[in-house]
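Possible regression after last week's pipeline update?

I re-ran a chain I had predicted before the update to compare outputs. Posting the input and the new output here so someone can diff against the archived version. Not blocking, just want to make sure nothing changed silently.
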Amino acid sequence: MSEPPSAAPAPVARRLAAPLGVLAGVLAAFGYVGAVDPGEPGHYPVCPLLRLTGLYCPGCGGLRGAHALAHGELTAALRDNALAVGCYALFAVCWVMWCVRGRFPEARPWHAGALGAVALVFTIVRNFPFGGLLTP
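New output (post-update):
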């Protein structure tokens, strides 16, 4: 029995439609956060964990970090939330791979565990006095 003919690669515009749509959404979100300063009270809700317990969650400072990054201030973004900036960079690498390969990189089962472990350690360290560099 002969093998079925391989499908012709999708045209470039069709192959890039989904990644470009995601890029448009990400740019819109960063544009909004870049225009509306999260450092000014009243624009965004306060983190419920911080409000109830006084503890920083792994996302605390993420909006301020995105705002700083949107203004080209990498040092300030890392100071606000280094984990979020690392996740933005990881997503950018995955997005480029998606554009080049035509599919988003597959998540392996250990990826969620590794990200969870990093977030847990980040959260614990930033809430101790010696983790002062990680507090937003």
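Follow-up from reviewer: compared with the archived run. The chain has six helices and no strands. Marking as no regression found.
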